[in-house]
Recover the amino acids of this structure.
């Protein structure tokens, strides 16, 4: 996965952060095997796919809270099963 491809993957993640994201699905979308994608992703970002998505979701939730959003509203807006806040990766 070259640098341009890596940036396209990150852009896709950022644009779809409010949807369930799975490494295998994102890899397939960009034409990579899951193994290759996960290896290159960690090499490029320094985090696994799951760590990166979780960290980014937490950052977005924090920004929502800082802008005055209600904690419950932020929790409900997350693309995950009830009781699994910041999950779905």
């Amino acid at each position: 996965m070259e640098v341009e491809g890596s940036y396209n993957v990150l852009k896709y993640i950022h644009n779809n952060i409010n949807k369930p994201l799975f490494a295998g699905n994102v890899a397939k979308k960009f034409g990579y095997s899951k193994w290759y994608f996960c290896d290159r992703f960690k090499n490029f970002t320094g985090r696994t796919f799951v760590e990166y998505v979780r960290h980014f979701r937490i950052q977005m939730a924090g920004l929502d809270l800082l802008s005055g959003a209600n904690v419950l509203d932020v929790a409900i807006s997350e693309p995950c099963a009830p009781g699994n806040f910041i999950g779905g990766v």
